[in-house]
Design a protein that fits this description.
By secondary structure, this protein is α+β, with helices and mostly antiparallel strands. The chain has two helices and nine strands; from the N terminus they run ββαβββββαββ. It has a single domain, classed as Jelly Rolls (Sandwich), CATH 2.60.120.390. A six-stranded antiparallel sheet has the order 2-3-8-5-6-7. It has a three-stranded antiparallel sheet with strand order 1-9-4, covered by helices on one side. This is Olfactory marker protein a.
């Protein structure tokens, strides 16, 4: 019982592209976003976690960032529907996961983070896993961070053992 499992975040390229097309469409037509709609920013992408088990307990995050930069991970409460309804700001979960490495940090130095926030965020993900097979996230790459230089996963303990 209590076997650990590491779940990697997987970029959802198709969903990210659909969200980028929404932004382009609004810009081309000179329209404004809907009230409360959250548009994807150029430095953001949609990622997902696929839960093979539902009864999980959060253990820890595993994040690597090569070089300086900041990764911001925001959970989305929305269950994406086939018609890909627009993302609304009220569907973004708090807290967010903030991970960063500053210029001059040795490569073997631990990634900096807001520990209380990432602990709470990890526990919320484990709670949502009880009722979901998939969960979506917005990844924001800031301050020089690039998605090719980052790996991110969450380690859970399987309670159903």
């Amino acid at each position: 019982m209590g076997e650990e499992m590491e779940l990697p975040f997987i970029e959802d390229v198709q969903l990210t592209e659909v969200m980028r097309l929404r932004v382009q469409s609004l810009q081309q037509k000179g329209q404004k976003r809907q009230d409360g709609e959250r548009l994807l920013l150029p430095h953001e992408a949609v990622y997902r976690l696929n839960f093979t088990q539902q009864d999980l307990a959060f253990c820890n995050w595993k994040v690597t960032i090569k070089g300086p930069g900041r990764l911001s991970v925001t959970g989305i409460s929305q269950l994406w529907t086939p018609d890909l309804t627009n993302l609304m700001t009220r569907q973004l979960l708090e807290p967010t996961g903030q991970f960063w490495r500053t210029a001059g940090d040795p490569e073997d130095a631990p990634i900096k983070c807001l520990e209380a926030d990432i602990q709470e965020f990890g526990e919320r993900i484990a709670e949502l896993a009880k009722v979901r097979k998939v969960m979506y996230f917005l990844f924001a790459f800031k301050e020089g961070a690039e998605k090719d230089n980052i790996t991110c996963s969450v380690v859970f303990k399987n309670n159903s053992g």
